[in-house]
Amino acid sequence: MELGTPGVALARSAAEEPTGPGEEEEAGEHHHHGGGFRVVQWEWSYVQTPYIIAMWLLVASGAKILFHFSQRFTTVVPESCMLILIGLVLGGIVLIANKKQLYQLDPALFFLFLLPTIVGDAGYFMPARLFFDNLGAILTYAVVGTLWNAFCTGFCLFATKLLGVIDERVEAGLMDFLLFGALISAVDPVAVLAVFEEVHVNDTLFIIVFGESLVNDAVTVVLYKVYISFVEVGAENVQTADYFKGVASFLIVSVGGTLVGLVFAVILGFVTRFTKKVRIIEPLFVFLLVYLAYLTAELFSLSAILSMTFCGIGANKYVEANISQKSRTTVKYTMKTLASIAETIIFIFLGISAVDKSKWAWDTGLVSCTLVFIFIFRAVGVVGQTWVLNRFRLVPLDKIDQVVMSYGGLRGAVAFALVVLLDGEQVKAKDYFVATTIVVVFFTVMFQGLTIKPLVNWLKVPRSTNRKPTINEEIHERAFDHILAAVEDIAGLQGYHHWRDKWEQFDKNYLSKLLLRKSVYRKSELWEAYQKINIRDAISVIDQGGNVLTSARLSLPSMASRASFPEVTNVTNYLRENGSGVCLDLQVIDNIPGAKVEEDMETHHVLTGNLYKPRRRYQSHYSRHFMPLGEKERQDREVFQRNMRSRMETFKSTRHKRHKKERSLKKRRGSDPKDDSGDKPRRNVSWQDKDPVVVPVEPEDTKAEHSDPEKDEDVGITFIAHKVETPKQRPKSVPAALEGSPSIGSQSPPSDDPHLPWKGGVGSPPPCVSVEATKIIPVDLQQAWNQSISSLESVSSPPAPAEPVHPRISALSRLGGPRPASYTPPGSTTGSTTSISAQVSQGSFCFPEKKKKKKKEEEEEEEEEEGVQEMQPLMSFMRTPGSLPPPPPPPGSSRRRNPCVYLRSLVTAPPSGGEEPHSRGPTQL
Amino acid sequence: MGALQSSPGHPEYIDLSEKTGFSIEQIGVLHKRFKQLSHNEESLRREQFEEIPDLACNPIRAQIIEAFFDKRNYHQNGEGTVNEIGFEEFLVVMSHFRPPSLHITEEQLEKVRREKLRFLFNMHDTDNDGTITLEEYRHVVEELLSRSGALGKETAKSIADAAMLEVASISMGHMEPDEFYEGITFEHFLKLLDGFEIESKMSVRFLNMDTITLCK
């Protein structure tokens, strides 16, 4: 597929001797300069072909840019129309300059290079589930509908010819008209994609029209070939047996094409299982094998489009799971780019070909009759088939759907390429057919393409909801699969769900085992969805974290353009630079308790809370075979972890209320009163040494990081120095469990040290320096955390080694892990949208008893005399990871903030739209 | 074929048909299946459900089977479970999976939606206290993932947690500082699956013809 461009070049070079107008003159001049050694040579003839092609693409792409400048224009005019218009203009220029059309859509070029790029993209990104859910409808429309269109158009044109509406000069018999009907009747995938992807109709409607356009290729190609052979033999010589051969040929072509595709899909899935060490060429396998599926089908004159489509659909699931995230992106973008290029070329060539009068002959009767017939028969066919289908469909297609489907029957480049391929000797009326086809294509793409959007608006066709499913929807989606399968089983029906369930079991038991890497095999799709949602969430939270900083009267340069920062990296890197600068400066400053220090402290404090790990300098590293692991990935993972944890923590608090309520309903047991009101005695017991476990990072981790460029495992170093919890809400069975298990973490008594953290001596390095030695994970979250880590790694790397499970896990998990609300790591403050809430919440889990004071201070910025006092909580907050937090807060005071903070951030999180628009797979160009 | 023979002989089918919305033919088919499952007895027990071979590898079969014995699914105010169900109950539960008829008003569709969601809600709300608590929700997700082996349990836990958080954020919006989310109520459940085309997704095509005999 990536051979596309050179392929174009080869195809072109045969046809072109003279070149474009401007270049030719210049070339001519320079050639006369010959004689002796020339320092600079004019090598136009050498670079000519690729040069022209590159210029073509540049012009088209430039036009696209210009086109998209105007918002209003793009919403009205589909891109395909614009491209055709450009083609017309370019063709006109070339024609005027040369008196002869140089560029023509070459069928070989079209079928071998341009079409596969588009079909490959469409097939690979086809939403498989949707496709198979609607397979019945798609097949009906594609096979029955296309046959109906072909025959009716053919026969009716022949009838109008007999009636004398079509001019005498059109020398065509019944066979010719049937042939023409066959090639003009198929809905074209390129045109449908180009128009429908901008219309955004609902998914079902889209997949039916688009699926039909892909699958009907088999019908068209077979009909076309059968008729060609009939025309060659002569209509009178065709025997009855030949008709049966035609039918058999159809079956073989379509089923064979599908099988070839599936075989290649299996090969592709299997190959990508083993590409872990050759990540760089991973995408190449995808392109090559998908393209080979197309070529192989073409080799045996099977339906290549079907082959490629099914190869894409079949392999997608396994390939996407096997290859790394980067390869996935590469595959996606390359496919989209190639498809976009191919589409551009096709439409421009359509425009150019239309200008060249020598290639076609006009007959008004034929053209108008064809237009009327294809429109009428399309509509009649759709209505008739839908009537039948609706008797079987659970979700009937209503009238509006039918109108859109009828109107969306766009013809395109496939028809044009087929008609150009006709042999003028055999088919006398070829020129007339070419003209008619061009008109039909133009009419459907331009007129219908232009009007379909207003039509869809006017009819209020349900649009695709441009959003990702929520976790709950995802869960229920999956639940329904099983529920419906179960109901069908109970009712003794062998319906669709029954078979799909059977297939999934087969896939799970055999196919996935064969085609998926072992590390991927165990992961569930639901988990993937969950993880994606989490990352998205985290990223939006970070964006808001940036806002917190700006408004927190920090001594950072103002970041007015923050909203326009496209990526998280920018923001955080930016902050880091500033942050570390602040750090260095502060080391020089004497510790004078006062507003200045206090402010610095706040800066420091907020930065510690919001910043992520310091970025390592980018290693200058070059290798052709490996790509260094990007910062971004590590960062994403870190963001993800933090966000996850804060979610979990806040959530636990949410849960706790209920738990408490239940408990209070029951008779209180001995320790309950203590839990509820006896917090005072425990105030000084830090929660830190009870709950989180300080786990030394395994040495291999860091070692491996340097030795193995693929290893993503340098996670787990976090800034979180401690977590504070109110003992008050501690489940009563935990203490018992705790007694048996001394904490692993190093302990130190709550410190009164009034110094800034960077004054704390060797033991407490400034938080801006990454503390690589420890990782602190709340015990009962360890497993979930590990999963989150491992799921974020590139797919190939083995799941993270299980952390040593603390004995308390069992105790906590038995209890359902109810947890005090204030148990919130500093990371959670990134979620706050305003500076005040960020600081308050940070303050609150440090020294909640001072919350009121702090809050006031932050609101009014006046209480400078409190400097030293205020500093203390902050100081201890910034201790080294092992150090202890200050006494836990009184009941209720800190519990109040966090859910609120968190929820706000969740609610205000921007919709996914911007990040990753809900793509209908194949159509995103 | 079975339906045609049995319809004159079973006048009670007409009542059932009015009650459940199934056609007489569909009732005939389902009755045959019922008898097949119950070995020609008048009632069905849980064990007989569990004997269905295709159900064996369904991860949430326990919940489904339980739904058939749940009185809440028979009529509005039922509560508790039964040990045996007759054909009528079988049919009533099945009718929750009937696709909505083609020509109904917006209001009726909403009613169908509610009924279907109520069924689903009851399935999750195992202790019938009007809310799906986190434990219950976790249980659902756990069962869903139970096919994926050891990883399933922990994953399920975190997924359920995240999902629950999402519910809280969707249904409560801004929460007051001392407010906490206790569990999914039915109203929240409706809101939660608002964008979910339940009326079409929770539907099975029941056959008018008797294919059971053909397939067995």
Per-chain topology:
The complex is a heterodimer of chains A (about 900) and B (about 220).
Chain A: H1 4-15, H2 21-31, H3 44-69, H4 71-76, H5 79-98, H6 107-124, H7 128-133, H8 135-163, H9 174-185, H10 189-199, H11 203-233, H12 240-272, H13 282-299, H14 304-322, H15 325-355, H16 364-390, H17 399-407, H18 413-421, H19 430-459, H20 471-490, H21 496-515, H22 518-521, H23 525-550, H24 568-588, H25 595-610, H26 631-665, H27 672-676, E1 692-696, H28 699-707, H29 733-740, E2 774-778, H30 782-792, H31 808-814, H32 835-846, H33 851-860, H34 867-877, H35 897-908
Antiparallel strand pairs in A: 1-2
Chain B: H1 2-9, H2 12-20, H3 24-38, E1 44-45, H4 46-50, H5 61-68, E2 84-85, H6 87-95, H7 106-124, E3 131-132, H8 134-144, H9 150-172, E4 184-185, H10 186-192, H11 198-201, H12 212-215
Antiparallel strand pairs in B: 1-2, 3-4
Helix pairs in contact in B: 1-3, 5-7, 8-9
Describe the structure.
- With 925 residues, chain A is mainly α.
- Chain A has helices spanning 4-15, 21-31, 44-69, 71-76, 79-98, 107-124, 128-133, 135-163, 174-185, 189-199, 203-233, 240-272, 282-299, 304-322, 325-355, 364-390, 399-407, 413-421, 430-459, 471-490, 496-515, 518-521, 525-550, 568-588, 595-610, 631-665, 672-676, 699-707, 733-740, 782-792, 808-814, 835-846, 851-860, 867-877, 897-908; strands at residues 692-696, 774-778.
- In chain A, strands 1-2 form a two-stranded antiparallel sheet.
- In chain A, helix 9 (174-185) packs antiparallel against helix 18.
- Chain B is mainly alpha-helical.
- Chain B has a two-stranded antiparallel sheet.
- At the A-B interface, helix 20, helix 21, helix 23, helix 26 and helix 30 of A face helix 3, helix 5, helix 8 and helix 9 of B.
